[in-house]
Amino acid sequence: MRSLIGFPCLGDMLVGTLDSASGATGLLIVSSGNEIRSGPHRSMSQLAHRIAAAGYPVFRFDRRGVGDSAGTNRGFLESAADIAAAAGIFRREAKLRRVVAFGNGDGATALALFHAQARIDALLLANPLVVGPPPPPEEKDAAEPGRGWMRQMIGRVAVRRPGMHRSLGSELAAAFTEAEVPMTVLLATRDKIASDFAEFLHKPAYAAAGTRVRRKQFDTASHVFAGTADKAWLYERVIEALAEQRAP
Questions:
Q1: CA atoms within 13 A on the CB side of 231
Q2: What residues does the Serine aminopeptidase S33 domain cover (predicted)?
Q3: pLDDT digits (tens, 9 = 90+) for 87-140
Q4: Contact at 8 Å (CB) between 125 and 106?
Q5: Global pTM?
Q6: Whole-angstrom distance, CA of residue 20 vs CA of residue 44
């Protein structure tokens, strides 16, 4: 049975979808980017239906400011509270003993960074993003040095350097190294984001982090595993992770 559930997060009301099943281990799906909980081409909705049919409850949700959820969308790097609130209501409503979380792209990155606060028991991270949004604008004087009167009249202006993005390498390395739960990375071999992540794991500075995660690859260029064979492979990997965490 599929039902809608509203739940609070820092004063805002979030909306999630629960696919019920009898198992005590469930799957929490964290959406990528600004996608709504159904996923691209309803792929996450379809995955949830199949996983629930196999006996595992599944919960999907819209973070603040996305889809049916209220609030301001502050991006995936500010989604720790959203993930924790979703995991909490999922555990309560489905009467779970364990939660496996799955995310793709920046949803995977958010899970890697924030899973501890949400008390996640195992992670499935598909094609994690290794760069964040551009850093905040730098404030610079609008006038030349010494032109104090002009500064006062014009004030200061924000300058954003074009093309700059925030590297998340150090934060991800720390998250992988310090993780106390099983982490499996799923990579689409011909996806640019997946290739960037694989390169990140091979850098000497992050070698220790790379040894802490299991890696499984599928030969596809689809970032979201959209093809028929892709979907079948992804389903099998999710079922494997859930079976490893199966609770009595």
A1: 16
A2: 44-161
A3: 999 999 999 999 999 999 999 999 999 999 999 999 999 999 998 876 555 444
A4: no
A5: 0.87
A6: 15
